[in-house]
Write a structure and sequence with these properties.
This protein is mainly beta. The protein contains two helices and eleven strands.
Length: 235
């Protein structure tokens, strides 16, 4: 019975220590009202390599909001999961604009971005799309952040990993382009940071009627490029 109670208390303590629901606590520290942020786009995630901490992305409105337009100040934070105290932060004024190409999702990427033996980055992904049926468009961008000197530093800004768009007649005929990229870590370094290998797949599709059937002709090519750290950021 004693062991059961001890185990229960231990589980409760662990659960409490990993609680990441600290939005109100963080907003109070930042002196931001909840009405000043886009709550639907707010996101948070526990760091898998340091589960006592979480990353929060707080999208604060930077301008007057209309149904079709708003600008977001990005507050990128690392907090203590037990207390909700802000440990590191990066603030980018007017980071993202939502207009005809709408910002519809923000997510935190905790992949294995090991930039050197002691530095692991985390990412913030932003997704945009329009509402056009005849001219559809979407894109997803990645920014990377590292902890340095008790602050956060952005080392990659809004790099496009996915993009697609095209034009068609809503029946069959049309042309579409899409590209999807992934990032691998290179063994080679510059300025003490590993290069990033970008592998991209580009697909072009052309649809047309032939013998009363809608036929799609697709061509694919693969590209490899590198992003190199210049001492400030990856380019």
């Amino acid at each position: 019975m004693v062991k059961y109670i001890f185990a229960l208390l231990l589980c409760t303590q662990i659960s409490f220590s990993q609680n990441t629901d600290h939005l109100n606590t963080v907003l109070k520290q930042l002196k931001i009202k909840k009405s000043e942020i886009n709550v639907e786009l707010f996101t948070q995630k526990v760091l898998p390599n340091d589960k006592a901490k979480s990353v929060l992305v707080i999208p604060k409105y930077a301008s007057e909001v209309t149904p079709d337009y708003f600008v977001i100040d990005a507050y990128i934070l690392v907090i203590d999961n037990t207390t909700g105290k802000i440990i590191n932060k990066f603030i980018e004024p007017s980071a993202w604009t939502s207009d005809a190409i709408m910002l519809n999702n923000i997510s935190i990427d905790t992949g294995l971005y090991r930039l050197n033996e002691t530095t692991r980055a985390f990412g913030v992904r932003t997704s945009f799309s329009n509402n056009s049926r005849l001219n559809p468009y979407s894109e997803m961008n990645l920014s990377l952040y590292i902890t340095t000197n008790n602050s956060l530093k952005q080392v990659l800004k809004n790099y496009t990993l996915q993009q697609s768009g095209g034009e068609w007649d809503s029946d069959c005929a049309g042309e579409f382009d899409s590209s999807t990229s992934s990032i691998d870590i290179d063994k080679l370094q510059n300025k003490n940071f590993n290069n990033l290998i970008v592998k991209t797949k580009v697909v072009k599709t052309k649809n047309m009627f032939k013998n009363e059937d809608c036929i799609a002709k697709e061509t694919t090519k693969k590209l490899i490029s590198k992003l190199i750290y210049n001492g400030k950021e990856y380019k």
